[in-house]
Design a protein that fits this description.
534 residues; Beta-Lactamase; Helix Hairpins; five-stranded mixed beta sheet; four-stranded antiparallel beta sheet
Amino acid sequence: MKADSQQSFTAHEQPATWRALTVFAGYRFFLAAVLFFVFYLQLPPAFLGAVDPSLYFTVSQVYLLVALVLLVFTLKRWGFIDTQIKLQLLIDIVALTLIMHSSGGLPTGLGSLLLVVVVAGGALVPGKLAAFIAAIATLAILLEVSYSQIAGDGATKYSQAGLLGAAFFVTAWLAQWLSEKMQSSQVLAEQRARDVANLAVLNQHIISRLQIGVLALDAHGSVTVFNESARQLLGIEQTVPGFHLRQTIPVLAEQVWAWHQHHPQPFSPFQARADLPEVRASATRLDSGETLIYIENTSAMAQQAQQLNLASLGRLTASIAHEIRNPLSAISHAGELLAEQEPGRSDRQKLTGIIQRHSQRVNSIVETILQMSRRKTVEPATMVLATWLDRFVQEFREIKGAKDGEIILEVEAPLAKVAMDPEQLHQVLWNLMENAWHYSDPWQALPRIRIHLARAGKEINLDVSDNGPGVAEDEQSLLFEPFHSRRQGGTGLGLYLARELCQANGARLSFLPDELQSSRFRISFPGEWQEYLA
């Protein structure tokens, strides 16, 4: 009995039992209203209340009011549910028995209404309590039959009462068996639903924290899901899915289309915007028909590859630099001797001048490559970038003899820290400043060079811009190509080397033309190397 009581308590505290009791309370209120208003309005069937109209009217009226109160209690979930179930079932048995008695007893067929009560008892109460409800209903029928026999109506109905009582017990057992099956299935379904919901939340949390970007496309090319990494790597401005990929990121949409067309190499590295990192996509098709796209930042791979390239370049240049510089020195020396022999001949001076200039240019290229080959391994150090920039700008101003206002340093993130090799950062920034100083216009409005340090999401951006004429659109794609230079006497290796050094340190150097057509170079430092102070 103790185990049954404990089982009853735990089972009936479930929301499913309250919902079932609410449905039964609604049925009770509907039945009580029908029994009362059919009699009150004198509607058929005529046997309702035929034996004792006064008793029928009183019982049906009280039953309707009690049914309303019980419905409210059930809807509000007041009290203990075990007590509610037992009390309500006993009220139903007593009220329906009295209604049946005042209408003519068992022959009226109203005893079948007790079957619903027994079914509810089998469904709502566990174990022996369901049999107890069936026993009470059977006892009520036997009492009614016995009272009718004693009252002398002349008919013996014990056999009919016995059959109805047996039906009560069988119905209670079947209802309880079905209820247990349904409750176990419902509990399992609710548990599975909670597991699925929890798994969905967990998956969403994992996807949102992935460093790899994830997008899901439907059959029409619309983005249905994307995580925060994809939004940052691709520069997606929308915060919710539902936009079309071709309108937002056309270069990625073209690669996905090529992948759908089974091109041999559909995906290649790309930048969604000039100020965003270079990424590479891959895709897979889901059983649901959607396409899942993975976006991977290639900066780490590019950094490792760059280290290998620089190591290979060092070995190569170390082996051939001596073989190049010896004949180059001989050519230059021969040109000088040739120019000294007949200094009065202008044609010879012109030719020897060409020899000297181009010898110096080749020597400059060899020196630059040797500097690259001799560069030590990257040794990043954490530094407060604003403090380091202040010292750097002062040094550059002194060497160039810049006037006040010609070079401006703007700092929006004074406490931002980055990790980069200080010597290599100095080399990169000096190259950018040297180019900006050369191409700036001293006759235009100041400043000639503007340095801007700011925080952008998880990155720290360092911009170097000038007031010069800018870079032609057809030359922008060649800025970082080696041996390409618009500057007279330039080797074309400065920007190339600057980008290589940034990649070796995990940073990113990019060119950003603006609406004024001025030149603006940006160094973006990786988020995982940054440390922010409150």
